[in-house]
Amino acid sequence: xxxxxxxxxxxxxxxxxxxxxxxxxxxxxxxxxxxxxxxxxxxxxxxxxxxxxxxxxxxxxxxxxxxxxxxxxxxxxxxxxxxxxxxxxxxxxxxxxxxxxxxxxxxxxxxxxxxxxxxxxxxxxxxxxxxxxxxxxxxxxxxxxxxxxxxxxxxxxxxxxxx
Length: 163
Fold this sequence. Notes:
By secondary structure, the protein is mainly α.
């Protein structure tokens, strides 16, 4: 039995050494990108979600607050903004020491983009106008029911969507 254990230990050591050699050959930048994607997605799914807020924060701090649903959405928007935008930008600047614009994060051609955006907004407005007459649509949207009755909350919710 002891002999079998030594064989297993040597096999594990050989496999581990092979994996370590393979990892050393990988491109550091690609490895950081793949690992950060996995870690940031896990953080987003488990810790910056509405579900996390509701299960871990709501009852402790917001149970009696009539605007708790709004705070739940704000937590989600801000958490994902930090997790999925700010942290990746910091990785680019601090670890890679590269320009953020090299990754496509820059202002484009406003003479092209602005008219396209305006056309898109007008088309979507018309589509949503007709869709909003549907009972299925109004039972699902808006996501935050408080926005139906309070313009301040509506404005705060809409501005927070830009985050």
